[in-house]
Amino acid sequence: MEKIDNKDVEPWLRQRIAANVRRKRLAKGLSQEQLSVNCGMHRTYISQIERAANNLTIDNLQRIAEALGIDPQELLSNPVPDKGEPEPHTLQARQKRGR
To answer: CB 3.0 to 4.6 Å from 81: which of 14, 36, 85, 99, for a disulfide?
Structure first.
């Protein structure tokens, strides 16, 4: 059996989910507080997810998707803005600046 290397993983998927959650939440006109109430989570947990600061379980991914009224797959896919949504690179730039 091969030894598994325990290198840190590049968090690109977590960052993609973070951008998608934020983008979809804003498109629905929801605050982090409103989304957290809708999916039964704490507001700070939603904030951590949107900043890619926290891993989330598949169950929580499903809860967030249901609260946003979308298929969980939309949170995993490469961000392509819907009509009227900000471009993904704009969101990423805002996140880097802390906005």
So the answer is: 85
At CA 22, angle to CA 20 and CA 24, rounded to 5?
Answer: 65
Residue that is written with structure tokens 């998927």 in the block: 13
**Three-state DSSP state, 40:** coil
The predicted-structure confidence for 20-41, as pLDDT tens digits, reads as follows 999 999 999 999 999 999 999 9
Both tokens assigned to 36: 């957290």
Distance CA 26, CA 11 (A): 23
* CATH superfamily membership of 12-76: lambda repressor-like DNA-binding domains (1.10.260.40)
CA distances from 67 to 6, 9, 71 (A): 35, 29, 10
